[in-house]
Amino acid sequence: MSEPTPYEKLGVNDEASFEEVRDARDRLLRESEGDESQQEIIEVAYDAILMDRLRARKEGKIAVPDRIRYPERLSAAIPASLQNNTQRRAPSWLSRLWDSPSQKDIYISLGIFAGLSAVSFFIPAVTTTWLSFGLIASVILLTRKENRFGRALLISLSGITVGVLLATLTNQVLIVSRLVGSGFFPSPIQTVIILLVMWLHACFLR
Fold first, then answer.
1. Burial letters for 69-93: b for 16+ Cβ neighbours within 10 Å, e otherwise?
2. Of 63, 69, 80, nearest to 46 (Cα)?
3. Is the dihedral of CA 73, 15, 100, 112 positive or negative?
4. Are 204 and 99 in contact (CB under 8 A)?
5. How many C-beta atoms lie closer than 10 Å to residue 167's C-beta?
6. Contact 164/194 with Cβ under 8 angstroms?
7. Cis ω on the peptide bond leading into residue 79 (within 30° of 0)?
8. Which is nearest to 82 in space by CA: 63, 54, 56, 60?
9. Per-residue CA distances from 46 to 5, 52, 70, 93, 187 (Å)
10. What DSSP assignment string belongs to the chain?
11. pTM for the predicted model, two decimal places
């Protein structure tokens, strides 16, 4: 049996777009987390596809947008010694923290937090209850991605913390500007700000 091609290793066809190849790479890395040998195979296959696409573009076979990857290298020849090496990318901790959710996941999480925001306007007296629901929803959504409760809880707590800080800063700016008076914190608007930050954490981090 012949050796699988880089495209077959990532589970995409040779006509797949750069976005499809990248998404396949990210998905397989998540699925094989903890298996360094398998992740190395995935990375090598991904880099091989990239170099093949760049070489084809240089030869005029395909037109690849310069914004996709390493635009400064498109006009330079690719040394043969680099064909089996992993190219530099974003820091590993950043790539593992950042998530590219599907459209369905975005709509689901957005619906949950938008619903909580709407309810907080009509029933502002129990704001802490809506924020608690938001925290629980964030933990559940994040746990579904990686099945790591501790990490999900930490990211969720950071989301509500950043949200409170941003809402507090916004409140102080409005008070200094005399656009609002000092009052109960958080107000409905501040609650929406907190829930918005929590949604961003739950949706685009992992």
1. beeeeeeeebeeeeeeeeeeeeeee
2. 69
3. positive
4. yes
5. 22
6. yes
7. no
8. 54
9. 11, 10, 14, 19, 48
10. -PPPPHHHHHT--TT--HHHHHHHHHHHHHHTTT-HHHHHHHHHHHHHHHHHHHHHHHTTS----TTSS-GGGTTS---GGGTTSPPP-S-HHHHHHB----HHHHHHHHHHHHHHHHHHHH-GGGHHHHHHHHHHHHHHHHHHHH--HHHHHHHHHHHHHHHHHHHHHHHHHHHHTTSS---SSS-HHHHHHHHHHHHHHHHHB-
11. 0.53
State the residue for tokens 């397989």. Answer: 28
Identify the pLDDT of residue 178.
62
Residue identified by tokens 């090598």 is: 44
pLDDT along the chain (206 residues), means of 10: 78 83 88 84 88 79 52 47 48 73 90 93 85 94 88 92 91 71 68 93 89
Which residue ranges make up each domain of the chain?
A: 6-89, 103-204
With tokens 């400064």, the residue in question is: 72
